[in-house]
């Protein structure tokens, strides 16, 4: 039986960490849908046309190289506003979502567009300042030369692009539970997410 958990939210809110934790807790498969757009973004940086890159994407590419650089993140956000790119990646995500044994998908439009019938929907968020500090520390740890002001500007710019795009703008689904991680530890945020899913999950015979 399939059971889908849709987790949406802006960059560095903690949805990826929570999604991985939820998947591990329940034994569900996990898909970070942002990697699809990052892989397409990487292809465009190499000179490929965005729609062609999306149509040719394979699952193997998601595990190749570091897709979490700041440059690729910006490229991903830019290709994500192209309707034809999003359309090309929809089937991949929906097939993953309905696999047997349960699945967790995290992204920007899972609960609103990709899996509107998901059994559980969460929208994970945090203030722009908190998210920028998290991203700054992450990038600095990788040796990137960035300033806090630059990262905060990038976060706000990406938020605007993701929430204002004409196709599948980032927003909570009407029936999504809002989880603000600004003042929560990873453990506390994960515990809240697990509790919500436990309430919705059918009892095991």
Description of the structure:
- The chain is α/β, with parallel strands linked by helices and 205 residues long.
- The chain has one domain (4-198): P-loop containing nucleotide triphosphate hydrolases (Rossmann fold), CATH 3.40.50.300.
- Helix content is 52%, strand content 12%.
- The chain contains 9 helices and 5 strands.
- The chain has helices at residues 15-26, 34-45, 50-55, 70-79, 83-97, 110-114, 128-141, 148-164, 186-200, and strands at residues 4-8, 29-32, 103-107, 120-125, 177-180.
- A 5-stranded parallel beta sheet has the order 2-3-1-4-5, with helices on both faces.
- The relative contact order is 0.22.
- The model has no long low-confidence stretch (mean pLDDT 93).
Layout: helices, strands, pairs:
Elements: E1 4-8, H1 15-26, E2 29-32, H2 34-45, H3 50-55, H4 70-79, H5 83-97, E3 103-107, H6 110-114, E4 120-125, H7 128-141, H8 148-164, E5 177-180, H9 186-200
Parallel strand pairs: 1-3, 1-4, 2-3, 4-5
